[in-house]
Write a structure and sequence with these properties.
With about 425 residues, the chain is α/β, with parallel strands linked by helices. It contains 7 helices and 21 strands. The protein folds into 2 domains: about 130 residues, Immunoglobulin-like, CATH 2.60.40; about 280 residues, Alpha/Beta hydrolase fold, catalytic domain (Rossmann fold, 3-Layer(aba) Sandwich), CATH 3.40.50. It holds the Pfam family BAAT_C.
């Protein structure tokens, strides 16, 4: 080892979570074996790690974007492998899922260099050197505003600048609560975004209430009338349980006319013009279709299969008059997203509006299609709101193809939103 020791750099040292970084080690001996390790301590108290084994070149340098990883949690030339291949450390409790709750603080990633090609025991060894990098969902000067307007609850994110900006109504999935990190990232790219809380809301008596379509229409109108928003450039983005809501609003609402919609890992199967209560009732009626894998992890995708022929049981896709981006994983074990996408395409072809549809279908990809370079989670704990019990849900996907899908689908989502929400001459905010 050179007397001055190796120098580890991460550039940029502070970046958005969808931005690529360069990890490089210099001042190593030539042909020297090292292991690069990345560690995140999550807000839930869990440790997530990734590592790759490398051999330095003749100048004593390892450059992750250029050099081949010889094994670890990933292999080959993978510039972002130290992030997307992260997984809970071996001693973790099973069922962990990585989610950022406080978007006003960064994800801190500790990168370390260890001697030799290692496979375990990192916490018991002293690294040659370490540096910490920050990964943000929230760009500098993006405003975060908690919203309570009548019954509407959510968080509004407003990009820096005078505006007005295009906007996105962001509907997360069935886990409930308020999930902000996608909205924060959208605002970091120039969109006012409202992360709407709609699953798991409680009434004055403390009991769960299922909101009706008026709730979503009110939220859309609030966003549309906000002084920082261009009222004719508002999109709706749904994930999982938010997809039938998104499609139903686009197809039937007299008050909601989105400029475009983005649907991730969801279905159009729901009672026509139905409310969330109707969707819950339809799922409950098919409860006997629940399956479990060999490790007793719950599989929910069959609750909505087979795709019904009865048009009264699914959104009339022919009624949609705005561009639609559908994103689905072929290994989604939680929702029949690929089957639904195929049926939606067929319905729109028959109705003559298929020119509005773009489908991104990814093999080896599961249900939880997150922002780029996020850890792939094949299964995790899930709290049942009604029963107040916890189950382990199988989401599906294999790490490499799922991670590729996360990166590509997000970039195509940004291109889709830019195409339909911004003028061609606009300056790209946050990019």
């Amino acid at each position: 080892m050179a007397e001055e020791g190796p120098v580890l750099s991460v550039h940029p040292s502070s970046s958005l979570v969808d931005e690529k970084i360069e990890v490089e080690v210099k001042r190593l001996p030539a042909d020297y074996r090292i292991t690069l390790h990345a560690l995140i301590h999550s807000e839930d108290g869990d440790d997530w790690e990734a590592f790759g084994r490398y051999t330095s070149d003749s100048s004593g340098t390892v450059k992750v974007s250029r050099d081949k990883c010889l094994g670890g949690t990933f292999e080959g030339v993978e510039a972002m492998g130290l992030l997307w291949s992260m997984r809970p450390v071996p001693e973790s409790k099973p069922g962990r899922r990585f989610q950022k709750k406080n978007v006003q603080t960064p994800i801190k990633v500790v990168f370390s260099v260890y001697e030799e090609h290692l496979a375990k025991g990192f916490k018991h060894r002293t690294p040659l050197t370490s540096v910490t990098a920050e990964r943000w969902y929230l760009a500098p000067e993006v405003q975060r505003v908690e919203v309570t307007v009548g019954e509407i609850k959510g968080t509004l994110f407003i990009p820096p600048g005078s505006g007005p900006f295009p906007a996105v109504l962001d509907l997360w999935g069935g886990q409930g609560g308020r999930v902000e990190y996608r909205s924060a990232l959208l605002a970091s790219h120039g969109y006012v975004s409202l992360a709407l809380e709609y699953v798991g809301l409680q009434n004055a008596a403390g009991k769960l209430q299922h909101v009706d379509n008026t709730y979503f229409e009110t939220a859309f109108t609030f966003l549309q009338k906000h002084p920082n928003v261009r009222p004719d450039r508002v999109a709706v983005m749904g994930m999982s349980f938010g997809v039938p809501v998104t499609l139903g609003l686009a197809a039937y609402s007299e008050f909601v006319e989105p400029r475009c919609v983005v649907c991730v890992s969801g279905s159009h199967i729901m009672p026509v013009k139905g409310s969330l209560a109707d969707v819950y009732a339809a799922l409950q009626a098919n409860i006997d279709k629940i399956r479990y894998d060999e490790k007793m992890r719950i599989i929910w995708r069959d609750l909505l299969l087979p795709v019904p022929d009865d048009p009264s049981k699914k959104v009339k896709m022919g009624e949609i008059k705005c561009p639609v981006l559908l994103i689905a994983g072929e290994d989604d074990q939680n929702c029949p997203a690929p089957e639904s996408a195929a049926d939606m395409k067929k319905m729109m072809e028959e109705a003559g509006n298929s020119h509005l549809l773009t489908v991104l279908l990814y093999p080896g990809t599961g249900h939880l299609i997150e922002s780029p370079y996020s850890p792939h989670v094949r299964f995790s704990d899930f709290k049942l709101l009604e029963a107040k019990t916890k189950v382990v849900v199988l989401w599906g996907g294999e790490t490499v193809p799922h991670s590729r899908a996360q990166e590509e689908s997000w970039q195509k989502t940004l291109v889709f939103l830019e195409e339909h929400l911004y003028d061609n001459s606009r300056e790209v905010a946050g990019c």
